[in-house]
């Protein structure tokens, strides 16, 4: 469901999710998942969550 990226170096973690959507605002679900990941991985240098469902929501 969520693509979780690589461990960068030994002391930093980078969590990255791939997007298919473009020109769209963040959803409430993306915001909630981002917060959960930040709580679970407090030492991550960057957390990015995006919708890959394929639905294109234009602003």
Task: Describe the SSE topology.
Blueprint: E1 7-8, E2 12-16, H1 28-40, E3 44-48
Describe the structure.
The chain is an alpha+beta fold. Helices cover 22% and strands 20% of the residues. The chain contains 1 helix and 3 strands. A 3-stranded mixed sheet has the order 1-2-3, covered by helices on one side.
Proportion of beta-strand residues? 15-25%
What proportion of the residues is helical, as a percent range? 10-25%
Mean pLDDT, all residues: 67
Shape descriptor: elongated
Report the count of strand segments. Answer: 3
Give the strand order, joined by hyphens, for the main sheet.
1-2-3
Contiguous helical run count: 1
Radius of gyration: 12 Å
Residue runs with pLDDT of under 50 for 5 or more positions: 1-11
Q: What composes the largest sheet?
A: 3 strands, mixed
Helix and strand sequence: EEHE
| End-to-end distance | 24 Å
Q: Look at the helices and sheets and give the structural class.
A: alpha+beta
């Amino acid at each position: 469901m969520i693509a979780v990226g690589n461990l960068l170096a030994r002391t930093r973690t980078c969590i990255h999710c791939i997007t298919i959507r473009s020109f769209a605002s963040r959803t409430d679900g993306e915001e909630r998942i981002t917060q959960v990941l930040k709580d679970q991985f407090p030492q991550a240098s960057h957390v990015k969550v995006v919708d890959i469902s394929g639905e294109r929501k234009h602003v």
